[in-house]
Amino acid sequence: MVTSWFPQDSGKKSHGVVLVVHGLNLNPIRMKGIVAVLNSIKLEVLLLSLKGHGENFDKTSGENEERARLNSFRRVTYGQWKSEIEGAYQQVIDKANELNCPRYFVGYSLGGLMGCNLMVSLKNHGFDKMILFAPAIATHRIRVPFFKLLYLFPGLVVPSLSPSNYRANRGTPIAGYLSLLEALHNYKSKMNDTLNIPTVIFIDKNDELVSYRKLVSQIKNHHLKQWTVHKIVRHPGQLKYPFHHLIIDESSAGKKDWSIIRSKMIAHLS
Questions:
Q1: CATH of the domain at 77
Q2: Domains in the chain, number
Q3: What is the 3-state secondary structure of the chain?
């Protein structure tokens, strides 16, 4: 497990502690725009780097950092990620108890899924509030041939089309997709009332990976009355990068939408 603390430096009492988790094959440091917003409202932030991302990889003699990270990603399991987020959650609990303040969660894509998966697995009270960016809890349908391919070639790396300055590796190993699918299965099989806490979700209606329609239906069907979805509608000409799924900072979301996102984040956690 690799975590990094980003303390608020106002010199005043902290208003909360936040666990932040990145998306699949996203360089964790790209969550810094979100971290900055959280720090600005006197929140202590713990950024978790899941196995195969950032500095969380097995260093092997003779391998450079890039290859070692990718090889660790090729061997990743859902169990590893689950253990890592549980460990990070405990750090947040300890800090929140020390400061006597609330605990929050912010996750993007895979990170959002892992946070929700953690919530449904906890026996006791989890986070007080959540913010989810395009959470992978309601993905578009995966076609059967591709699904079968996942199990046949777990070490295969699917080249990434995301911007090079956002991705953690040149591609995403099938093992990463399998771990995500296992997390999704666990989440759906255990959904319960612990999820119904004040939660704000940001998603582009044309998201390529997460289904806006399925997300809204899931919230309605499971009576998550404290969840609010903020829909972003952008046309291709408005995108700096050709991906509707990427909405984690001003550069990816666009100045106008990021300003709205930032304001809603602050209002939700202040």
A1: 3.40.50.1820
A2: 1
A3: CEEEEECCCCCCCCCEEEEEECCCCECHHHHHHHHHHHHHCCEEEEEEECCCECCECCCCCCCCHHHHHHHHHHCCCHHHHHHHHHHHHHHHHHHHHHHCCCEEEEEECHHHHHHHHHHHHCCCCCCCEEEEECCCCCECCCCHHHHHHHHHCCCCEEECCCCCCCECCCEEEHHHHHHHHHHHHHHHHHCCHHHCCCEEEEEECCCCCECHHHHHHHHHHCCCCCEEEEEECCCHHHCCCCCCCCCCCHHHHCHHHHHHHHHHHHHHHC
Domain of 224 in residue numbering reads as 2-269
Residue 198 to residue 225: CA distance in whole angstroms: 9
The answer, as to whether pTM is greater than 0.90, is yes
Q: What is the pLDDT of residues 155-193, one digit of tens each?
A: 788 888 889 999 999 999 999 999 999 999 999 999 998
Amino acid, res. 7: P
Indicate the SS3 state at residue 187: helix
Q: What pLDDT score was predicted for residue 60?
A: 80
